[in-house]
Design brief:
Gln_gamma-glutamylTfrase_bac; transferase; 8 helices; sporulation; 277 residues; Protein-glutamine gamma-glutamyltransferase; alpha+beta; protein-glutamine gamma-glutamyltransferase activity; four-stranded mixed β-sheet
């Protein structure tokens, strides 16, 4: 159920776009209480989730290739490739332009699925808040893996829980062939009910993602890939305040945790938050 801070439990969504309305209704039907400080904060999350879904679809159509970190490549006009296979934004370009180039000039790029997730998230934030705010907030972009990103204040909950469009999930391939270690798992964006995008695999249902990973198991293996109980998403409250030009960012936004974190172990590493049962 969705609750606004003043006790409001219903929102007029008649004028909202269908994707935002659908996510709202899905969260509102869930018995978990999702509390928001304002209707604006709620709407921001729904817009960003919708934009994450669209950015994942745009990535699928971008012509960017899948590769291991070792063989990654990027457009040198916007990015410098680092030794670990990540991309460091050049100092003479704008962050918004650098992100958009990946989608408009995809053939110049190749990267792993973990890098794809970060690119999708940044593209979604860009389309949600606009170029000017994006360029102000993200002045030193580094694209590698969502596991090392700090700018988006990512939150990971290592437990089975309800998931929604825009969430980041993970399929593990425990018996991966050592010759194909880049297929030891697949980071995916949830697009809708049993519909996911994974860079290098495409848009498929869970069975399709698993079947693709199973093609890269050790010879003779009978242990299937599977979706792990884990969900990752940006700190929506932090990004909402940051995009609203609230300086300094409130301690509430910096320390915000979802209701699912209550009573669980919380570990903060840099800008990332990991939550365990």
């Amino acid at each position: 159920m969705i609750v606004i801070a003043d006790g409001q439990t219903s929102v007029d969504i008649s004028g909202w776009e269908p994707p935002e309305r659908d996510i709202y209704e899905e969260k509102h039907r869930n018995p978990t209480t999702y509390q928001y400080d304002s209707e604006g904060a709620l709407r921001f999350e729904l817009r960003l989730r919708t934009a994450i879904v669209q950015a994942a679809k745009d990535m699928q159509n971008s012509a960017a290739s899948f590769s291991s970190f070792k063989k990654s490549r990027c457009n040198a006009a916007y990015w410098t490739r680092t030794e670990d296979g990540g991309f460091k934004m050049r100092g003479d370009v704008k962050p918004a332009a650098a992100i958009r180039d990946i989608f408009s000039n995809g053939r110049a790029y190749a990267f792993e699925c973990a890098t794809a997730i970060i690119i999708v998230l940044y593209k979604a934030v860009l389309e949600t808040i606009g170029d000017q705010k994006f360029n102000r907030l993200f002045t030193n972009l580094y694209l590698y893996s969502w596991e090392v990103d700090s700018d988006l204040r990512l939150i990971t909950i290592a437990e089975k829980m309800p998931t929604y469009p825009g969430d980041i999930l993970y399929f593990k391939n425990p018996d991966v062939d050592p010759e194909w270690m880049e297929w030891q798992g697949e980071n995916v964006v949830k697009l809708g009910h049993d519909n996911y995008f994974g860079h290098g695999i495409g848009i498929k249902n869970a069975a399709g993602i698993i079947a693709s990973l199973n093609k890269h198991r050790k010879p003779g293996s009978t242990k299937s890939a599977y979706m792990i109980d884990q969900v990752t998403y940006p700190n929506f409250v932090y990004l909402y305040e940051a995009a609203s030009s609230r300086v300094p960012i409130s301690q509430t936004a910096l320390a915000w945790l979802p209701p699912e974190a209550r009573g669980r172990i919380v570990v903060k590493i840099g800008g990332r938050t990991n939550i365990y049962a």
